[in-house]
Design brief:
CATH superfamily of the largest domain: FAD-linked oxidases, C-terminal domain
CATH topology of the largest domain: Vanillyl-alcohol Oxidase, Chain A, domain 3
Structural class: alpha+beta
Keywords: FAD, Flavoprotein, Oxidoreductase
Mean pLDDT: 94
Number of helices: 16
Family: Belongs to the oxygen-dependent FAD-linked oxidoreductase family.
Number of domains: 3
Cofactor: FAD
Radius of gyration: 23 Å
Bound molecules: flavin-adenine dinucleotide
CATH class of the largest domain: Alpha Beta
Catalytic activity: N(6)-dimethylallyladenine + A + H2O = 3-methyl-2-butenal + adenine + AH2
Distance between the termini: 38 Å
Shape: globular
EC number: 1.5.99.12
Number of strands: 20
């Protein structure tokens, strides 16, 4: 693990005047608090902050940011959602980390409230520190649910909206950031601003996928739809990648399914993993024998939501939607589960790994968006010739397509410039001391893409140099910089992303 920063009697790292503010009692400097905020899910970097703020209100956060803004040498401030980044993105070296989940204990407009109006229909106003699992449970009490999800629900609303928030629903509804109507945001100047498509729209689009660079989200207004009760959940196996992707692309182009994903199963990894233990024990032997035979197989995964009213017709309807697909005969598997169990499918795998001490291990993940035109080259060059050949990883590998037109180009999020693109998730876990081997493999994959002319974009990006960030944002770099100058001119917010030079230091405040 690389350690950035030094040990920190905060009194020497932060301006003394901070102690006289009324938030002082909610600034924690004890070693437990510091330890928590200096680590994340990735377990690969450690960055030591000077203090952690456990805000009891939105005003606590505006006070903190305004104070830093008015210092002659401002200190950095990072909102921390659930700390599920993998490379220190929610950390703040020598600065203050704001634990956004603390707000959930108080109310103050940061809870979960369901409403309706004639122009939006049903929506939920949700605090930035709320976990998606809690949003699901609260909205289902009204028979409603958000339409766009992540595979794992123990992430915060502010954390996923700062990236994009993608899952098998994205082909249909777009990412989570395409389903936000309005937000309350505290800018890097400490201003508390409500923004939407029509009000302070520059800030609105900047913050969506903005990697925490422009403001701290304290409330998001999220689109809701009727929540179904149950889902039909189907997986089909392929050994031919072109048949697999052709079928995925066909399915995202027709109406009817609610979720489409896909994954790669290699003979070195078991068919089930922490992301979901879908395949019953009785089927595992023949799936393993199939993957042994081919080395690599591909698993198309789809879901159709339904309610009791369609009990009698749902199977026929699903059969119609899946007609003509080219999966391997005899390798279709079906499940019928509750909507909640489906959306929360990763949790049981997490709990199992936690009980074995295998959850809190390094996660050298790489997530990419790959243009459809390059997906065959990616399969040959990466899945077959790097990952399978090197045989270093047993983590889940995701691959599924989505439509560019479900993403608004005004948002900060970066995607490939092609109508259809694939999301690739290489969700490696490693032992404590060998994550660098997988990190190195990730670098090799990125180099391969560069050399092969595959115009992949990193999702949940991590770069070391300004040049790499400029390449990443490409034509959006100028606007990204302008927005930074407008909303966080002193570069206070989310320094752990390492996009702009972070501001550090001690000095007096004006
Ligand atoms: C097991 C697991 C499964 C995952 N599955 C998916 C998936 O299916 N789809 C997907 O899209 N992602 C997925 N992710 C990635 C996840 O969306 C990101 O890591 C996300 O940033 C985590 O949210 P968090 O609340 O932990 O944010 P953190 O890691 O705490 O923060 C992430 C970034 O957002 C900033 N930030 C946090 N809160 C706020 C706020 N309120 N306002 C402004 N900025 C803020 C932070 O400063 C930081 O820069 C997964 C991650 C894990 C660990």
């Amino acid at each position: 693990m690389s350690i950035i920063g030094k040990s920190n009697p905060w009194t020497s790292s932060l301006p003394h005047e901070l102690q006289s503010l009324d938030i002082a009692s909610r600034l924690h400097v004890d070693s437990e608090a510091i330890k928590l905020a200096s680590r994340d899910f990735g377990k690969m970097v450690q960055t030591i902050p000077s203090a952690i703020l456990h805000p009891s209100s939105i005003k606590d956060i505006t006070t903190l940011v305004k104070f830093s803004y008015n210092c002659s040498v401002p200190f950095s401030v990072a909102a921390r959602g659930h700390g599920h980044s993998v490379k220190g993105q929610a950390m703040a070296e020598s600065g203050v980390v704001v634990d956004m989940t603390s707000l959930n204990n108080y109310g103050n407009g940061t809870g979960i409230r369901v409403s309706w109006n004639p122009s939006l229909g049903f929506y939920a106003d949700v605090g930035g520190g709320q976990l998606w699992i809690d949003v699901l449970m609260a909205t289902l009490e009204h028979g409603l649910a958000p339409v766009s999800w992540t595979d794992y629900l123990y992430l915060t609303v502010g954390g996923t909206i700062s990236n994009a928030g993608i899952s098998g629903q994205s082909f249909l509804h777009g990412p989570q950031i395409s389903n936000v109507y309005e937000m309350d945001v505290i800018t890097g100047k400490g201003e508390y601003v409500t923004c939407s498509k029509h009000l302070n729209s520059e800030l609105f689009y900047a913050v969506l996928g903005g990697l925490g660079q422009f403001g701290i989200i304290t409330r998001a207004r999220i689109a809701l739809d009727r929540g179904p009760h149950r889902v039909k959940w189907v997986r089909m196996l392929y050994h031919d990648f072109s048949a697999f992707t052709r079928d995925q692309e066909h399915l995202i182009s027709i109406n009817g399914l609610d979720y489409i994903e896909g994954s790669v199963i290699m003979n070195q990894s078991p068919p089930n993993n922490w992301r979901s233990s879908f395949f019953p024990l009785s089927d595992q032997a023949r799936i393993i024998s199939l993957s042994n035979k081919h080395g690599i197989i591909y698993c198309l995964e789809v879901v159709k939501y339904y309610n009791e009213l369609s009990n009698d017709t749902i199977d026929e309807e699903l059969q119609g939607l899946l007609k003509g697909l080219n999966f391997l005969q005899g390798f279709m598997f079906k499940k019928d589960v509750s909507f909640v169990d489906f959306l929360n499918r990763v949790r049981s795998g997490e709990l199992k790994l936690q009980s074995k001490g295998l959850w809190d291990v390094p996660h050298p993940w790489l997530n990419l968006f790959v243009p459809k035109s390059s997906i065959m080259d990616f399969n040959d060059g990466v899945f077959i010739n790097i990952i399978h050949k090197q045989n270093k990883t047993t983590g889940p590998i995701l691959v599924y397509p989505m439509h560019q037109n479900k993403w608004d180009d005004r948002m900060s999020a970066v995607i490939p410039d092609e109508e259809t693109f694939y999301t690739i998730g290489l969700l490696h876990s490693s032992g404590v001391n060998d994550w660098e081997v997988l990190d190195q493999q990730n670098k090799e994959i990125l180099q391969f893409c560069d050399k092969a002319g595959i115009k992949a974009k990193q999702y949940l990006p991590h770069y070391r140099t300004k040049k790499e960030w400029m390449n990443h944002f490409d034509s959006k770099w100028d606007i990204f910089q302008q927005r930074k100058a407008q909303f966080d001119p002193k570069m206070i917010l989310s320094p752990g992303q390492r996009i702009f030079n972070s501001v550090l230091g001690v000095d007096s405040c004006v």
